[in-house]
Amino acid sequence: MEAGRHKCEPYWDDDKPMAVSFFNVAVKETFHLAEYSIRKIQVTQTKSGKLTQKTFDHYHFTSWPDHGVPNVLDLLDFLWKTRDTPRPRPGPVLVHCSAGIGRTGTYIALHILIDEMNATGQLNILQTITKMRHQRKNMIQTKEQYECVFITLLEVVKYGQTSMPTNHYLQAYPTKGGNLTMGRKTIDQLAEDIVSMNSPHNADAQVKNRLWVNGQQDQFVVGAPSQLLKQGYLLAHTPYKTEHLLWKLITETNSLTLITLGAETGLEFIPHPSHICEYGRVTVATVNETRLTRGVTLKTLSVGKTSDSEKKEIANYSVDLWSDETDSSSVIEHLIILMEQMENRQKKLKSHPVTIVFNVSDTKQAISLCIMNNIMSTISVHKGVEIFNNVRRFQDVLPNVEFTEETFRLFCQLAFVYLESTGVYTNM
Question: 84 in helix, strand or coil?
Fold first, then answer.
């Protein structure tokens, strides 16, 4: 189903094996990300006396709308992932959407053109698509999809593949630092580009992805993407007489991790240890409190509707580490501990939104926390280091947040320290 319409017969089942004519189809592995899913599908032929099996890498781009175009950074992430997947044997790549011409044509054209550019150093987009249309009518259906090919290739020409395998980054970063090339540019050059992409300060700037709570906007909340969910972060201003709306948001979105930035943030809507408070129709009790590091404190909260006996355990991490950008290695170490805690909760409790509550003066720190967590998630999930595009995704989430070259280098340093401390690269 897509947009309420039946577009394709199911040919796999994530929950159980399925029989399709003379084949048994079984999904052996499934991994769902915010924009696409990855599966290992094992197909067994049963017609002949001797059983034969093949395993397919299945990449399912779930956020690409029919007749439309995806976010270019999401498309590039998907494109590089599929191109980097090693093939166990020679053979063609099967690509389909619903009609097999619009999204399929766009995706195939990008692959052909990137190969052409790598081989010859030149591009002829019109000629390539004309050849494709001679083989299959209407390949690339809309003007927007045609434009998407140009925009995506412009990114490839200008920046290339800015992600890097974790083992390569770990080996090269200590000696090269800002001179390390990621894609077509060095870290220092990418940092300069990030600064140039900052939006001009605008007091009247519109906020994208603003969320309504209880049919009103009294409580400021913005949704932002994590690696696992399209709205993996709920960025909320510290409530002022709207504590009941904040807790309504947290409970209704099943957000099981709450981060409060600043020592004073949370005093209005989180009870003291061993105390219970009601906020509208939500009851919150602080069960215990533990100091994890000098700047990170964990409170275990029991939260539920006042009229319901069922309660959920929510982890509240109070973060009071930095008041301005810094390259302090000790601050990075504290942040890594925090983000490892966040990652463990996502694995233990399955994917859920993380709510981050902050004062307006801490907006940059809130955005930076999301970026750093996404960088670490990319390392954990893809075994790759992607800093540049993780920063770009958040440059327009909230208005008037300016990133400096020093901030970008802080993100690069965080990735190295995380790899060095966890040994994620050994899984390569």
Answer: helix
β-pairing verdict for 354-358 and 257-261 = parallel
Which residue in the block uniquely carries the two structure tokens 């995704």? 393
Nearest to 76 by CA among 101, 117, 96, 106: 106
Task: Find the domain containing 414 and state its range.
Answer: 167-427
Which residue, chain included where needed, has tokens 């499934």?
Answer: 30
391: nearest Cα among 419, 425, 359, 415: 415
Which residue, 110, 137, 159, sits at the end of a domain? Answer: 159
pTM over 0.90? The answer is: yes
| pLDDT tier, 294 (very low <50, low <70, confident <90, very high otherwise) | confident
How many angstroms separate the Cα of 355 from the Cα of each of 99, 275, 294, 311? Answer: 39, 22, 22, 18
Closest alpha carbon to 390 in 47, 144, 48, 73: 73
Asked whether residue 9 is domain-assigned, the answer is no
Residue 328 has pLDDT above 70, yes or no: no
Determine the pLDDT at residue 373. Answer: 95
Give the span between the Cα atoms of 193 and 208, in whole angstroms: 23
- Number of domains within the chain: 2
Q: How far apart are CA 36 and CA 39, in angstroms?
A: 10
* Domain end marker among 159, 187, 205: 159
Q: Which residues of 342-378 are buried (b: 16+ CB within 10 A; e: fewer)?
A: bbebbeeeeebbbbbbbeeebbbbbbbbbbbbbbbbb
Are 300 and 286 within 8 A, CB to CB? yes
> Over the stretch 171-207, which tens digit does the pLDDT of each residue have?
999 999 999 999 999 999 999 999 999 988 776 677 8
Please determine, for residue 333, whether its predicted confidence score (pLDDT) is greater than 50: yes
Q: In degrees rounded to 5, what are phi and psi of residue 376?
A: -70, -35
Strand 312-319 and strand 257-261: the pairing is: parallel
Q: Tell me how far apart the alpha carbons of residues 331 and 359 are, in angstroms, rounded to a whole number.
A: 20
> What are the strands of the beta sheet with 36-45, ordered from one edge?
18-20, 23-32, 36-45, 52-61
| Contact between 224 and 394 (Cβ < 8 Å) | yes
Residues 6+ apart with CB under 8 A from 98: 2, 7, 8, 66
CA 326 to chain centre: 24
d(CA 353, CA 228): 9
Residue recorded with tokens 């044997």: 89
Do residue 137 and residue 219 come from a single domain? no
